Amino acid sequence: MKSKPIYVEIEIQAPIDEVWEYTQNPNLHEKWDLRFTSITYKPKYSDEDPQRFTYITKVMPGISVEGWGESKGTHHKNNGTRTSSLHFGTDQRISPIAEGKGYWQYNPHQLGVKFLTQYDYDVRFGMIGQIFDLLFRPMMGWATALSFDVLRRWIEKGELPAVQYRSFLVNMLTSLLFFFVWFYHGLVPKAIFKHKDELTFFTDLIGMSNSLAQNAVLMAGIAEMAFALVWLLPIRKRALFRLQIWIFPILTLCAVLADVEIMGAAFNPVTLNASLWVLSIIGFMNSKDLPTAKTCKRKRGSVS
């Protein structure tokens, strides 16, 4: 079962020397590359020797992977292209990657530099490792592409990687929260229990019979669960946040009109929807311009 190498390419509007510095300087490299938490260069005994280094990648609090690597840069004087070859690996069995090789290439042109990488690796644990790699490899490709866009924005716009990743994380967490909120409220009180408060809206405010209200609540639950799944799609969420800025006040008004006494309940729809409304505004403002893996080309000759 042979997997395709990971390929990522991005255009950066900057001189090649600047891109080279941001990618070859370990103190700068570790700031923008999601795949490495820290990189430490070892001393070189001659200019001809490859640059050896060690790296640490924090997987989660208290768990990290330590590995080794060596790189060597070459400069093609005819067209100004530079290439940095890479050999890396780790002895820790917690890592699905055993050892790998790849390269970075810098192709200068009038507008800047076409910066690209291609790398491949061997996995551990035989067939089980190869099956797991069907999920892990796309994640590595995505992390590489997102890191390249963070690098581009840092060089071109001066946006610090830590600020970019913080905004990206806020967007991801709010998206997951809204997925949970919509899916839970569609599944539990509507689809499963058909809670009396849900039925009240259709029977008292709209005037439906109880049987019709039962079906209406179920359909509303299915619609909410479908909307929840949209939050998991790899799309920009700005339009979804904007939609919710309008939806939550309307839902709050409908809930109060259906049963005004609900305003006296603990953690009632008024306070809940107000919180989600404010969070939608925050999400809308935060999602205006985020780093994205979609900026990169993932195949040779493709259009990003």
Automatic annotation (TrEMBL):
Bilayer-crossing regions: 168-192, 212-233, 245-266
Keywords: Membrane, Transmembrane, Transmembrane helix
Domain of life: Bacteria
InterPro entries: DoxX-like, START-like_dom_sf
Entries under Pfam families matching the protein: DoxX_3
Gene3D superfamilies: 3.30.530.20
Protein name stated in the entry: DoxX-like family protein
